[in-house]
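**User:** My hope is that you can spare some time for a protein that puzzles me. I have put the entry right below:
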Amino acid sequence: MTGPAMVPAGGYGPVVPPALLRRRRSPLTWVTMIVLGLGALVVAVLIVLTGGPVASLITIALAAISFPILILILFWLDRYEPEPARYRLAALGWGGVVAVVLSVLAEQLLFAVPGTSDFIDTAVTAPIVEEAGKGLFLVAVVIFRRAQIHGLLDGLIYGALVGVGFAFVEDVLYYLSSLESGALPITFFLRGVMGPFAHPLFTAATGIGVGIAVTTRQPAVRVLAPILGYVAAVVMHGIWNGSTFWGGDGFLFAYAAIMLPLLAIVLAVAIWARSREGKMLTAALQQIVAMGWIRPEEIRWVARLSDRMSARAYAKRLGGAPAARALREYQQTLTEIAFLHNRAVNGIPPPDVNQRMNALLQHAAALRPYVIMPPVPPGMPRPLPPRR
């Protein structure tokens, strides 16, 4: 794997050209966003037609209360190599549009099959169908945008965001139904206060399985990990739904003894994975320094999250908002270089690894003359000359 050497900084220089801060959008990205946007509009119109404008506004506002903190936690976990905003929106849109539509259509057919019962429909059929509909987003990303999932944490984040989108629309529908029956307060407490994490937790399990699969060289694990993740999602979903048939004590037992511990486990796994990403990023950047592609003092301002922010603040003080944007883009590019290098070292590179690495290195080299970084700390090795 080869690549061009980066250009050393030659002073603060002019403001970075806007073209260097824009990532090219593929036709598939535009089509996906347009389709999901139109689908979201259709779902919104159907909700308004079903419940009326006032009831729809009330229930949508109630549903929206439950998820901002959860989304912020997911974004906090995803700080080392944050997923592009368009993919985050696509995950939310898939959950709230595609997964909901697929689930409604499939459940209408399966619930009508003779011999079923309310318990089977709720605790078995619905989890199987809904987790499949949500999990298809992860399958689509692996097929069409494999580079967007680098490991376990990426899969978990995408799965949880799909779950957030699904839960939001489902909550609106439940709130509309309970508004008519007068049970809105208890429904909001159960779904919006006690259980907003449920759907994100379920689909995060599928995402963990997919994340493991894309980072292993063992064919059996590549097949089994996503399947086991999906099965875990269905089982958790089934327990959650089935507990509503066990009375108040049964539901509280399932909530306190099963769901909350599982949530704690998944959060612990996510925090561990983020810490592991930080260590991997540092090691990969050190190897890249040895290749002469970047300068040694740049590792600190990329690999440590607190130093990333302080470096951006320093750049903003000296060069304003454009300098901070240039540094942020440069940090993101070096992070992508490190993740790609790590995949190559571990024997799981994408087929076009050389082309992608060259493109990233060229992008970083084009940005470097416009980047303002803090001075080299005392004791830090002086910059290496660029590789020729």
Observations:
- The chain is about 75% helix and 0% strand.
- The first helix runs from residue 27 to 51.
- The two ends are 15 Å apart (CA to CA).
